[in-house]
Give the backbone structure.
Amino acid sequence: RADRALLDLRTFQTKGFTVPIVAMGLSFMAMFGTLILLPIYLERVLGLDVLNVGLLLLPGGLIMGLLSPIVGRVYDRRGPRVLLIPGSIIVSAVLWALSTVGVDTSVWFVLGAHVVLSIGLALTFTPLFTAALGGLPPKLYSHGSAVLGTA
């Protein structure tokens, strides 16, 4: 009534904000799920020590960070679809492939899957963030940013 909400949920009335937020939530679940489960799998099942697990997962994080500016430039030129569709397909395929790992799975397969997953996530995060905030009216930008940070 007084328009002083700490976290204004009217942002979810805009379809151009809600759909990217839901998609981003799913992408974050995929990312955090693998960031939590892969080290446990690599240590307990494959018997790697902590240093080797960290070194094995390092390329995925590096490639995700290095792709961000490139993805931003492609987004500016072509829009979100050209990035989101392949990114979503890549993430889905890699998560399916990771569901088949077992005791005999090669460390190189896990490394390759993690790097490809990181590429797919890099292709999805930047367009989703930009599309979500771009779908809001200007008076809700600050609240949309707060909702993104909270989500």
Notes: The chain has one domain: 13-134. The mean pLDDT is 89. The first helix runs from residue 15 to 45.
